[in-house]
Input
Amino acid sequence: MTLALLHKILLIAPSWIGPLMSIATGTEQADAGAHGGEHGGEHEGDHGGMAHLPSLIHVIAKYVGGPDWMVAWINVIYAFAIALFLCIVAGRVYAKRQMIPGPLQNFVEMLVEGMYNFIYSILGKDAKQYTPFLGTLFFYILAMNWVGLIPLGHSPSTSLDITVSLAVLVFLYAQWTGMRRLGIVGYLDHLAGEPRNAVTWAMVPLMFPLHIIGELAKPLSLSLRLFGNITGEDVLIAVFVGMGISILAFSPVGIPLQFPFYFLGLLLSAVQALVFSLLSTIYILLMLPHHEEHEPETA
Amino acid sequence: MEHFGSMLALAAPFGLGLAAVGSAYGIGRAVGSAMEAMGRQPEAAGKIQVAMIIGAAFIEALTIYVFIAFFVAMGKLA
Output
């Protein structure tokens, strides 16, 4: 019943809804009128069938034109633009730092101090060494996730290339931290499960591959979690935008059906950025020497 | 195998929903227990919250794996 109704709606949709939907969801549908009934609900974009909102790059490539690599490199372009933005903000604040901070400096100091206190509550006295990396990771991922929510924006974290490279970076940094802080012997000892008596030595052939697989699974789960969450959120919003536009078939104005999901997106993006940096912190913590049991006082 | 597409179209969202049910149950239990613990010991709320978020991330990752598998299956459909 409902399906038949939907089919009817898609059939009677005026021909100009097709191009509008293709603009809104970034797909190329040359002849929406003829295929409206069959393909109206399916978006065959360049992302393997996933709906997505148009970004500035898509719009420029479609209406102004540009080099061919522009759309293919969209994630890299946005990732570098966000990195550049963060660098400029940080550079400006650092160059013009004052004893009595202005509004921007005050805000940035608040963010950095909050990040430091958060990492201090986990790493203790090592926090000062690792806050620059982990804090940058958090704000970079947060910015990448949130850019997808603003109009003409696009989340670079909807691409596996970006999330995998971040996760591999964390993996290499954690391994390097382990080798440096524990020494090569201590690192291998850590991977072997720290054998100290006959029973644990007998367990080494089991523990060693287990630890190796465990280490390799960490970047996999980190990258897939970020990619899946942000892609899901962006596809959800794009699908609801498409639904709001197909309402134009029997209503003079479209309805912003995606509106409630922006709040969900804001929350989810922040949680995913937090989880990514939190888990990176924990992976580094696991690689630090832990014989001295320091209890960090709550900061 | 002529009904391959329709079987996949039925099975892939169903599997995703099944995974979501399991994850919802797990996260519900984890967050519920964390809330209870925070109510008992409000001074430890920060530590409990961090542990809760990590646990929730691990549980939720399972649904995300199914979600990615779903997208792979949907790519085969088109």
User: Anything to note?
Assistant: The mean pLDDT of chain B is 87. Residues 4-77 of chain B form a domain with the F1FO ATP Synthase fold (CATH 1.20.20.10). Chain B touches chain A through 17 residues (CB under 8 Å). The helical segments of chain B are 4-40, 45-77.
